[in-house]
Each structure stands twice: as C-alpha cells, then as structure tokens.
Write a sequence for this structure.
C-alpha cells in the first residue's frame, strides 16, 4: 500500500525558495581586498554584488558585534544616516566600484552561506543569506568571494568585563572609519604591528596613548614602527601585563600593571592579535586549518568560495601569532582570579568554565560540584561545543565573539595540550545576531506554508496508544492530519 | 510532587528505586549508543545493580538527544504516565540539574490551529489527562510575549520540558557515579555470539563482554542490527531549530504552537523548531554533517508570529539534528527472540521527554523479560514483519537526491 501515494508532503522537497537575485560574483566585505575583487569582476564584465555590514547598527555595536567596541563609541554611531555617509566618505574606492557597475549594498550583512553537500540536498542552488536594517533575503552566485577581514582577539583579565576594554580593530574602525571614538587616553596591550599601528593611529587622531604593555622582554613588531612609537614618546612597559582594570560607572578609569604601575586611562585596547573572520566558512561546514603564522584558524580549500584579504589569513611575517597569544593567555590567566569572568554575556567565570559548572540560576548538588573539566577529559578529548552547552560560555548574544578564542586557549592549557588540541567551538548561522522580524521570510511560498508540520507529519505517531488498532485510530489520524498545513 | 491533570501514581520513584536495587547484580550490560534512551536505560540498569558499559561512536547526547526541543508531554505514549511520574524527581535522583519545568501551553494564531488544539485537548481529557481551553485574552494574561493575533490555546496541566543537553550529561554522569563506564569515540565494530546470545561487543575501545545488550544507536540501529541478522526499518531525516537571545522570563516557559515545538529556556532564550524535514541516507559511522538551511527564516517568521512582542529579539544560532523514524512513527521497544539477550530501542523521533520512562521499560525487558508498568505489545519490532524493501519509497521517505557525502 502506498502511503500518501508515495510522496511526503511535509518533506523539504522544493520548498526552499530560489534566490531573489543572482550575480556572477558576490563579494562579502568592502575593505581593500573585497573592493579589489569586486572591481576585477566588474572589469571582466561580470555582474557583481558587493555587500558590507558597515555601518554596524548601534545595538549590535553595543554587543561587540562584530568587533570588540567595548562601549567606547560616541552617540554619533546611533545616527544611521550620518554613519552611512561617514563610511562612504572613508573609502573612496566605493565610488569607483559603483561607477564600474558594481552593485554596492552598505549596512548589509551576510549571515549565512548555504549549499548542497553532506546532510543537505534540498537547496535549489548555493546562496548567500543577507540582511539589512529592514529585511533578510537570499541571493545566488556563481562565484563567492569572502573578504570579511579579521576581528579582535579578546583575552580576559580582572576588570576586562566593563566598558572601556576594547579591541584594536574596533579602535581602528571607530577612529578611521566612523570618527566616533569616545575615549581620550588609552593603554595598549601588546606590541606587535597591530598594537604599534593602533598607537600611531590613536596619536594621529588626537588620542593620548599612555603606553604599550608587552608580556615579552622587547617590542614584538616591525622595528621601524616601534621606532616611530618611541619617537612619539610613547612608553613601552616590558615584561609586564595588565593585572586589573579599575573603573566606575562609565567603565575603566585606570589600570594597575603587574609591575605595580598604575596608569590613568579611560580605555584599554587589546591589541594582542586579530582572528581571521572565518564565521561564514565555518558555519557553512567549510574546511578550516590552523596556521599560527597567519593568525590562527584560517579557511582551508573550499570549492566555489574564494577568501581574500585578512580573512584568508594574516600576512605571514614569520611571527607566530598563536604562540604569542598563548603566552599572553598564560600570563593573564595567572593574574586572573577564579571569579574573573570569561564569558560576559552569560557571566561564566574561569572557575565555572574549568569546573564545567552550570549557570548560577541552577542548583549545584554535591555530585555536580564534584565534576570538572578533568572528569570530562577522562571520557575523551574535551569538546568545546559540549563544554559550551554545559557552562553556557559562548552561548550569549555576542555569539561567542568575546570568548570563543580564549575558551579554546584555556581548554588547551587545562588539557595540557597545544592550541588546537582542543578545537574552536563551531560557528552557526546566522553569524550575526539578527532580529526575528528581519530574518523572517514574510513572503514564503504556498508550498512551504501548506507543507508545514510541527514534526514529521506522520499521523500514526500521535494516536493515543490505547486507540491503536481500534476504530478510533482512523478518526484521530484524520483529525490530526486535517490540522496540518497550519 | 504530582500534577493536577494526572492520576496519582501508586508508588513514588524513590520506592521504585528501592524495589529494583540489586535485581540485576552481577549482570553485565553493554549499551550501544550514548543518546538519551541508551543512557537512561544504562542508568536504570545501574540502579538495579548491573555493571553497565556504554559505547558511543562520538560524544554522549551529541545527536538528536541533545538537539531537540526538550518537550516532555507525550500523552500518546504507553510510557506517558511513567514519564510524568518520574520527571519531577529526576534532578534529585540523578544528582545533576536537568532544568525540568512543569506544564505547557499551546497557542494558536490561526482558526485551523485552534481547531486542532481543541481536538487534542478533548483527546486528552477523554483519557483523563486534564487540558484546559484558553481564550485569546487568557493566553495573553499567561504569556506576556503573545500578541493580539493569538486566538486562544490550551493549557496542559501536566507535562513540561527540560534542557536536553544538560539532561543527557546528567544521565551520563549519574551512570558513572553508579560505577558505569562510558566509552566515547568508540564505535561498535561487531558482535560476538554464542548459543543464541551476544557474549561480547567489539568496539574500537576493545572487546566488551556482556550478559545482555541494548541497542539504542538511533539511525545507526539499522546497520548494527543487520550485523545480527535482524532487520529494523528506519529512515533518518534532518530537522532544524533556532534560538534567540534571552527574553524576559514568562511564568510558564513551555509555550509553543503555530506549527512550532520548543520552549523558553531557564536563561530566557526562545528555542524553537518545526517545519519541513529532509530525508537522508544513513551512514554507519553516523551523519557526516548536520547543516541547517535557510529554513531558519521560516522558523524565525513563525516564532515572530507566535510571540509578536519578541519579534525584535536577535536570533543567535540555528542548528540541525538527524532523527530516525520507524514506518509508523512509533517507537520500537522490544527484546529480540534471537539473539535473545538483545533489546532494541528507538523512540522514532520522540525520545527525549520520554527518556525517564523508556529507560525503565528497557531495564524491565533486560532484567525481567517484560515491562512491569505498561503494555508495550504494540511497539514490538514484529509489527513490521514483511514490510517490504520499498517501504521508504511507498511513503516518499527516500533521500531526494544522493547525499553528496556518499
């Protein structure tokens, strides 16, 4: 007997919609690498869409998405029109791209890439999912170029979870693109090129730089840059580290260093490292590989997707970024207390992370308190996604941006392995937090609506046990099935 | 602790535990599959004194057991009353938090939904399980995130929900605390039989001797049981969920409807799933991937319709799980005739909430040969005898295209 004539009306079938538009080339990210790729495509006569999430909506910036803004943006960032203008003015190549025929969408994030592959074959074609301040939609592509850049690496220390602790990429964004940095006097943590450039940029923009703190015994970056910093009378605090950021209601007011020095600043700029933005690649199930010289996890070979610029890996200067940041993580870890926060969104402390303890709103009976990362390790290599589910570290609205990398470092240290021995927690779409009403497909097909069921659409599944094989079974099945297409 | 809407149990869970203690002493049981059904069975057996070993191809609760909506209100199941009896005591019995919460609301935003929910309410009330009908205004009073579009709903005075990931780990840890062993990353490679029984299970972790075996490996049951010459018809499909940032806590977090299942977590997040599934091929080593799809957008829409006052909340994750179904969507909980010491359990996509009861049933089958608290005859494997090799095609349940991992 054929059930439903051999078709399942509740299966995905062809219900997933075709893209709204198709392009020969879709480029995500309008930094120098993305712009160059878009212009190259247009130069070959291809249809090109270039999207960039800047300007970032004020609410997202408040959640440190996508960079560690640390609450140090001015209220100017709340003015969407002004922000759009500022972004446009700060990148002259945008105009050139538009003139070359590239379709440019600013304030538009790419939150997912979907393609058929292992575990999914129901997509009509490969698509990029987009969203702006008004709506979400999907577009098709022949070639996808990711130029999503790199984001701030955060490593916690006592007091880092207050306004005024930010990242170097966020500082650069606020100073050079948005003209909306609210700090006056900064202390920079790190001394590699990222930190040296941050110091020089801050100074150029009229921000006072109180110094650079370096855990190692000498400045790490390019010698000429370090000389320029010295020439600007900016001191280096070597073999030192921030022991505590002390502040008030508006956040950081001063920093106490390991050496005992106390420095009055309103902002601490974490410039220990940048992490290539592999969120889209990782969320689409693409390959990632670890390369310390190129900033950590970078995209592997992924058919049909090209990564350019920093998201493909930082420029290899022979400097091992991973070794450097692990050294920082060890030092800041030593300076931290058990109750130092690791995950700000979910308020997970170091002790709770390493003890794999549940959040504070749950009871911790004696057997629970007796558990720790060590007891989990006895069952096999620690998995960051498993630990995330138990502790909630990385489960918050910043989507783990502030803690994913430091959790991976802490777990590796706790498991006595090198970085990478414990993998990074996976990224999931949407790779930007987006409101339900924006993500929603308000124009879904009749096919999707009519075929919707709460579960598998198997009427026999919900017949009460006592009624199975009785005349009432048919009645229930019909009544339950009738309710489908909700 | 009892529910308003349920018959009063004749025995407390603590009394049951006292009764079973020592009944399986010296018995060695190997559980294949560290999902929620296997772990609960292992825990019940360990409470009975058995020496329990759980073998899992990966991490405990990594598949559907840890990726579902967490519902625990399955009036259709013969295990239902046991499910309801056990859940309120599970935190105390396991020693670890499960986040179990009581009661559920199902709310409608279309007349068709309201009609169906009313039918389900009557079906429950006919069985003696109390479900109250609610008007739109009553729903709005109980569900702060509901909107003007809500037409009414129903209030299960029983049932509830729990945190799947936390609960699965709770079973695993509680099992270990009772002396049970869990081998993760240890797929089963074969069975050693002798005299009509399985005497050892071979896995990458080694050879595990046993007096009894429980096969609770989800979609992989089919390939595992085939090694024993037993055909178990199963088809696997992908199902998807999304979760938002935390919303203000609602008095009852177990609210769903509008074609969705899910809950508000104790942290406040809204976690919901539903909608079309995709039938997939099954691989002996487990799913090669668990990708979500743009269905995320359709889920987001329905959550926004269900909770208009939460439409501004950010979605922060989506995920998918691979779920197996039997041809009629009902569980198979059955001890085999040959090899006679093998018990199979698949809950056919509805296993998490029923786990406190399904483990008890499996414990009974393994130790006593029959279930002590309910009839399971209609969940036997033999109902599929002679089903035919094309049963998936007959239902339209075959993969729509060859899986690219094949």
């Amino acid at each position: 007997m054929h059930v439903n004539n051999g078709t399942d009306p509740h299966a995905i079938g062809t219900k997933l919609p075709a893209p709204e538009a198709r392009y020969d080339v879709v480029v995500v990210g309008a930094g120098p690498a993305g712009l160059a790729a878009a212009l190259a495509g247009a130069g070959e006569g291809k249809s090109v869409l270039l999207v960039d999430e800047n300007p970032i909506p004020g609410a997202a910036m408040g959640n440190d998405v996508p960079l560690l803004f640390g609450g140090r943006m001015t209220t100017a960032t709340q003015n969407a029109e002004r922000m759009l203008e500022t972004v446009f003015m700060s990148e002259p190549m945008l105009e050139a791209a538009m003139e070359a025929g590239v379709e440019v969408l600013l304030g538009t994030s790419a939150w997912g890439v979907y393609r058929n592959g292992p575990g999914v074959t129901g997509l009509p074609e490969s698509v990029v999912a987009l969203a702006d301040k008004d709506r979400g939609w999907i577009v098709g592509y022949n070639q996808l170029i990711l130029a999503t850049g790199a984001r701030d690496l955060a490593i916690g220390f006592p007091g880092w979870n207050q306004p005024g602790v930010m990242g170097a990429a966020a500082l650069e964004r606020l100073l050079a693109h948005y003209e909306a940095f609210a700090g006056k006097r900064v202390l920079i943590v790190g001394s590699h090129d990222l930190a040296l450039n941050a110091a020089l940029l801050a100074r150029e923009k009229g921000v006072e730089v109180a110094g650079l703190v370096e855990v190692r015994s000498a400045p790490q970056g390019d010698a000429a840059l370090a000389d320029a910093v010295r020439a600007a009378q900016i001191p280096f605090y070597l073999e030192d580290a921030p022991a505590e950021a002390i502040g008030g209601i508006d956040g950081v007011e001063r920093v106490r260093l390991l050496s005992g020095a106390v420095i009055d600043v309103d902002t601490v700029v974490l410039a220990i490292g940048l992490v290539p933005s592999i969120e889209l690649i990782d969320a689409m199930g693409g390959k990632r590989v670890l390369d310390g010289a190129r900033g950590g996890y970078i995209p592997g070979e992924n058919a049909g997707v090209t990564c350019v610029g920093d998201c493909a890996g930082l420029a290899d200067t022979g400097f091992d970024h991973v070794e450097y940041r692990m050294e920082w993580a060890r030092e800041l870890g030593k300076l931290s207390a058990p109750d130092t926060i690791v995950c700000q969104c979910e308020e997970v402390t170091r002790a709770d992370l390493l003890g794999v303890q549940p959040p504070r709103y749950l009871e911790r009976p004696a057997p629970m308190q007796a558990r720790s990362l060590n007891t989990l390790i006895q069952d096999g290599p620690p998995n960051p996604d498993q630990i995330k589910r138990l502790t909630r570290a990385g489960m918050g609205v910043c989507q783990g941006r502030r803690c994913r990398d430091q959790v991976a470092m802490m777990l590796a240290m706790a498991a006595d392995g090198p970085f990478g021995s414990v993998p990074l927690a996976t990224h999931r779409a949407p790779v930007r937090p987006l409101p339900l009403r924006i993500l929603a497909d308000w124009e879904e097909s009749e096919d999707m609506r009519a075929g919707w069921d709460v579960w598998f659409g198997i009427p026999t599944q919900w017949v009460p046990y006592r009624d199975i094989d009785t005349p009432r079974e048919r009645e229930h099945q019909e009544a339950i099935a009738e309710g489908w297409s909700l | 602790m009892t529910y308003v809407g349920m018959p009063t149990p004749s025995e407390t869970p603590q009394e049951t535990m006292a009764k079973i203690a020592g009944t399986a002493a010296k018995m060695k049981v190997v559980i294949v599959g560290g999902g929620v059904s296997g772990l609960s069975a292992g825990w019940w057996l360990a409470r009975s004194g058995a020496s329990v070993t759980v073998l899992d191809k990966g991490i405990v609760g990594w598949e559907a057991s840890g990726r579902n909506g967490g519902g625990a209100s399955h009036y259709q199941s013969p295990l239902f009353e046991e499910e309801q009896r056990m859940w309120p005591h599970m935190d105390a019995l396991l020693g670890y938090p499960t986040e179990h919460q009581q009661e559920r609301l199902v709310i409608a935003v279309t007349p068709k939904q309201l009609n169906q929910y009313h039918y389900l309410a009557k079906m429950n009330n006919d069985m003696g399980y109390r479900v109250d009908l609610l008007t739109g205004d009553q729903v709005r009073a109980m569900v702060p995130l509901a909107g003007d579009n809500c037409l009414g709903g129903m209030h299960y005075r029983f049932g509830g929900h729990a945190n799947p990931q936390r609960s699965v780990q709770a079973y695993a840890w509680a099992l270990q605390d009772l002396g049970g062993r869990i081998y993760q990353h240890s797929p089963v490679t074969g069975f050693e039989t002798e005299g009509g029984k399985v005497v050892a299970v071979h896995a990458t972790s080694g050879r595990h001797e046993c007096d009894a075996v429980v096969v609770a490996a989800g979609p992989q049951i089919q390939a595992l049981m085939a090694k024993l010459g037993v055909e178990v018809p199963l088809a696997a499909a992908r199902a998807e969920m999304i979760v938002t940032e935390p919303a203000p806590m609602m008095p009852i977090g177990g609210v769903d409807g509008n074609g969705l299942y899910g809950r508000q977590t104790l942290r406040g997040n809204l976690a919901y799933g539903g909608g079309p599934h995709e039938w997939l091929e099954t691989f002996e080593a487990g799913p090669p991937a668990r990708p979500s799809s743009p269905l995320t957008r359709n889920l987001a829409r329905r959550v926004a319709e269900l909770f208009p006052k939460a439409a501004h909340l950010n979605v922060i994750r989506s995920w998918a799980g691979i779920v197996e179904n039997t041809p009629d969507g009902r569980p198979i909980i059955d001890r085999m005739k040959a090899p006679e010491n093998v018990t199979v359990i698949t809950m056919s996509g509805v296993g998490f909430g029923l786990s406190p009861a399904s483990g008890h049933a499996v414990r009974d089958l393994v130790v006593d040969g029959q279930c002590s608290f309910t009839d399971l005859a209609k969940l036997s494997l033999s109902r599929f005898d002679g089903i035919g090799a094309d049963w998936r095609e007959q239902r339209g349940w075959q993969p729509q295209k060859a899986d690219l991992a094949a």
